[in-house]
Amino acid sequence: MLDVVLAERSVARAARRLHVTPSAVSNALARLRAALDDPLLVRSGRGVVPTPRAAALAPALGRALRDLDQAVHGDAFDPATTDRELTLAMADVIQVVKLPAIVAALATKMPRARLRVLSIDTLVAAGGLAGSEVDVLVGAGETGPGVRAQALYEEPIVLVARAGHPVARGRVTKTELAALRHVEVQVAPGFGNRRLATSYAAVSVTRDLAVVVPTFTAAAAVVARTDLVASLPASLVDVLGPRLALRRVATPLPPTRTTIHLSWHARTDQDPARRAFREVVAQAASTAHAFREVVARAAGAAPRRTPQAR
After folding, report:
1. CA distance 167 to 161
2. pLDDT for 182-217, tens place per residue?
3. Are 256 and 199 in contact (CB under 8 A)?
4. Where in the chain are the domains?
5. Rg (alpha carbons) of the chain, rounded to whole number
6. Least confident of 8-12, 214-218, 253-257
7. CATH topology classification for 2-73
8. Is 82-310 in the same CATH topology as 2-73?
9. 221-245: per-residue pLDDT in tens?
10. CA proximity to 92, closest of 125, 129, 138
11. Could you give phi then psi for residue 147, rounded to 5 degrees?
């Protein structure tokens, strides 16, 4: 109230600006005078002028009110100039397949922002999305109190073997599938693909796990140099398959797909910078996936809604 009176140099004008009565302003000034043991304002013509004490208080009072307003309403957000650090968690397969498109989109829409990318095991160790380390997760999703999620796309899971492996020549039977040894991917301890396990259970086949690795790229590299097989996201096979000489293996398994979500926590729901970040990530990841499918079809890969090699 004192800040407004000092700016207006009038009790009446200050009252109109504050939408209160002049007497309410006068009563508040009286309480301040008593608390500070100073007149603060004296009449001069039709207005008031500050005492030396009030004039000395004015700059500090203005700063305090600006700081309070910033604390309540936050910094003004401009995507073109913000230099916020934004944190994104994703498994290595999404880093390989989607991250370049996300970085390119961020460079266009939020060019001065800084991006930090974390692995899924780091996300888990940091307490998940409810912690303070991660703004957005792109992956199979996280559940829990306060977690929000938006489905982005579906990722087919395909069985692969090295070129020259006996099973890479055609479709394997249940007996042949059961005889294979596998590389299992757990992006964090105990975080395997539950849908894949369900798919094997549906045909009464138990996978023989020879190796457990924390990344899909490590699984692809192991398969390329051994007689082990692995179930990998189709998008990663499209990227690394030709380089590592991997081949898809057709199986009697029912199709397995993982729904990839954009997930975040309610604590960041209304933050304008993080909301803009989520929009950039969602659009870039979805667009990159649609483009990959078009390229895959043009190259002769199976269309999305037809049976896939499993």
Report:
1. 7
2. 999 998 877 778 889 999 999 999 999 999 999 999
3. yes
4. 2-73, 82-310
5. 31
6. 8-12
7. Arc Repressor Mutant, subunit A (1.10.10)
8. no
9. 999 999 999 999 999 999 999 999 9
10. 138
11. -80, 130
84 secondary structure, DSSP code: -
- pTM equals 0.69
Return phi, psi of residue 154, to 5°.
Answer: -105, 135
In one-letter notation, the amino acid at residue 302 is A
CB atoms within 10 A of CB 105: 19
Residue 263 structure tokens? 């997930």
Classify 73 as helix, strand or coil: helix
Counting every residue written for the chain, the total comes to: 310
Give the Cα separation of 15 and 25 in Å (integer). 6
Q: Phi first, then psi: what are they for 178, rounded to 5°? A: -65, -25
Rounded CA separation 120/188 (Å) = 6
In angstroms, the Cα distances linking 151 to 3, 135, 202, 264, 282 are: 50, 17, 26, 12, 9
Query: Side chain identity at 272, as an amino acid letter?
Result: P
What's the fold here for domain 82-310?
A: D-Maltodextrin-Binding Protein; domain 2 (3.40.190)
